[in-house]
Design goal:
30% strand; alpha+beta; 3 helices; single chain; globular; two-stranded antiparallel sheet
């Protein structure tokens, strides 16, 4: 699978599906069409995937932002309601 196809497919996943994983690390299928598993803790996520029989080539891990978070140059800013 090419990375550009993976990214294109991920963009097609409905926001309602992504909202289920807000604030979590998620494992995307290699083709980017679905989320295989999610967890707030990366080590637990990787263990879930290992137990389920996935190989490291079967998925790509990324973080799903919470609605009140914004990434900025690798950092994280809180929404105004949580302080600045």
């Amino acid at each position: 699978m090419r990375l550009d196809e993976h990214i294109k497919n991920r963009a097609q996943v409905p926001q309602a599906e992504l909202a289920k994983y807000a604030g979590m690390q998620v494992a995307w299928s290699a083709d980017g069409t679905r989320i295989l598993a999610g967890d707030e803790d990366l080590a637990r996520l990787l263990e879930k995937l290992r137990v389920a029989g996935y190989k490291s080539t079967d998925f790509i891990v990324s973080y799903v932002d919470r609605p009140d978070e914004w990434a900025l140059c690798g950092g994280l800013l809180a929404g105004e309601d949580e302080g600045e």
